[in-house]
Amino acid sequence: MSSLSNIMKPDYLRVGAELVLERINSRLQAGPLWWFRFVGRTSERLLFTPSCIRPSDPLVARDIYQGRFTFSGRTVETGATSVFDVEAPSPAWENGLHSFRWLRHLSAADTELASENARALIDGWLSGPGKRIIGVSWEADICAARLIAWLQHAPFILRNSEHSFYRRFLASINKQMRYLRAFARGCQDDLKLLKVRIALAMCSLVLTSHDKTRTRAARNLEYQLKRQIYTDGGHVSRNPDAIADILCELLPLSQLYIAASKPVPSELLRAIDRLFPMLRFFRHADGSIAQFHGAGIGDADISAAVLRHDVTNGQPNGIANQSGYQKLVENDAVVIADIGRPVAGYNGVKTHASTLAFEFSSGRNRLIVNAGVDRLCRDVYDAPARATAAHSALVLDDKSSAQFAVFSSGRRRHTRLLRGPTVVETQPWKTENGEGFSARHNGYLPTSGLWHERGVLLAHSGSRLDGYDRLTPESAIHKTSHKADIRFHLHPSIQVAEVGDYLQIKTDRGEVWQFSAINQKPMIEQSIFLAGISGPIYNWQIVISFEYPDVDSVKWRFERI
Fold first, then answer.
1. Considering 26, 70, 156, 163, which has the largest number of Cβ atoms within 10 A of its Cβ?
2. Domain Heparinase II/III-like C-terminal: where (predicted)?
């Protein structure tokens, strides 16, 4: 324990200092946030309207009209009180409210009553949170999302509106645009800044702007796309959910350039072309996204809506080296594995200790999963979701392969990676029986002196998945005893039971698989699936436990029968 404490304490201080410096630098670059800094000439009209490709539901408009607001799984009944005056049940709910993305549901209703309701709610924001540049409402990514939503649904919002509201609405759009321009100077190169740059590029086309302003906005956006989108199409955060979210904003922006008769920035087109295949890379046959590094909150309907705009139907490669993922596809079977290092710094706010974990599906049956993240975004589940034990991977001495620190600032929590695997070595396989890979990481070296190696081979028929997990010492003299647990989390729809020397796995669609391990007895234990639609639910997991160095390698097999 003493050696671990010596590792953790300086790392904690270093990461904490980095977080403080990030916040100080952001404030220094943005300058004083006095409201009069963002007062200026107001555009007389909107030249164009960006489209919105996010799926919408007119029934949600009815709930909003009745004062019922549901975001991130939480519902608030406002009654006669303004929704902006009620106490938010969670930070995620508050983010959803102030982002105004819910305007698409009112717009889908397409009635005069819905339009009046939208104006009343926007008026409530303008006379409340919109008056003072402070709080959640003015966090850069929330402001960017709100600005995009207002531009996308402006014709609906302004339908039969009074001139006074029209002027206040346009004045606020211009104010928020100037605020984002100032704040962008202090933002780190992360997903938040990318969304800000997208919003500013939209404003440069929708509002009356000089050519220099449009050129500068396009150039800044291209710079962020180069910085944040890997050549394989992944985002630097390694969060699969980020891809569909980015495409939801980039596609309307590219269409807006065409509508405005302006050349579409080349880097914008390249980013879209790379993102589409990567979105397919992370999808299982049932449309769900692999649950790695914070993914699991995103709606599968959003991915489907985005892919309808892919005219090239670009297919992904089997390995995404930059993003750190491997995908095996044989017949109707899919394996998606994390073969990368956890992300540190401001791009790693959602990173998990999931190195060498994988998910496995057969047709529309999801068999092996990771626990995912709580859709209600409750802090109590954040640490368990990040742990290696919440992933289908090997856990050594009940510790994770990466450690994290949580720093609080008011109601906001900031999680940062303290340490984790710094080396992940991968070797792809191609045999006459199937395709696979082997990989190893050094995440457990500081605490145990051991490397974890995993090999996976998916048969060409898609009916068998063979694998092994091995522990190898850094030094030949390292023979300290350690307890290892190999965990395979089963999807909540799966039933598992012991049948002789095997475990029998049944899906709700009638498929039957069996699991076996050589020289080791697999056990069935209860687990928890955090990514349930209504919150965490119980599921089962298969666990193979062994003691090192008595046992240093375990072979296992999933086979359809």
1. 156
2. 320-556
Q: How far is CA 366 from CA 136, 169, 335, 511, in A?
A: 37, 47, 10, 11
Could you report the per-residue pLDDT of 275-310, keeping only the tens digit for each?
Answer: 999 999 999 999 999 999 999 876 778 999 999 998
Stretch 228-244: mean pLDDT: 96
The Cα–Cα gap between 399 and 397 comes to 5
The half-sphere exposure of 173 on its side-chain side, counting CA atoms within 13 A, is 27
Residue 26, classified by CB atoms within 10 Å of its CB into exposed (0-12), middle (13-18) or buried (19+), is middle
**β-bridge mates for residue 468, sequence order:** 455, 555
What tens digit of pLDDT does each residue of 82-116 get?
Answer: 999 999 998 889 999 999 999 999 999 999 999 99
What's the CA gap between 548 and 550, in Å, rounded?
5
Q: CB of 325 within 8 A of CB of 301?
A: no
Q: What average pLDDT score do residues 382-408 get?
A: 93
Question: Which helix (H) or strand (E) element contains residue 300?
Answer: helix 300-307
Say how many CA atoms lie within 13 Å of 283 toward its Cβ. Answer: 21
> By C-alpha distance, which of 286, 230, 205 is closest to 507?
286
Shortest CA distance to 345 belongs to which of 422, 416, 395, 276? 416
Q: Which residues of 398-428 are buried (b: 16+ CB within 10 A; e: fewer)?
A: ebbbbbbbeeeeeeeebbbbbbbbeebebee
**Two tokens, residue 504:** 């029998």
Distance, in Å, from the CA atom of 98 to the CA atom of 84, rounded to the nearest integer, reads: 9
Torsion of CA 329, 334, 337, 343, to 10 degrees: 100
Share of the chain above pLDDT 70, in %: 91
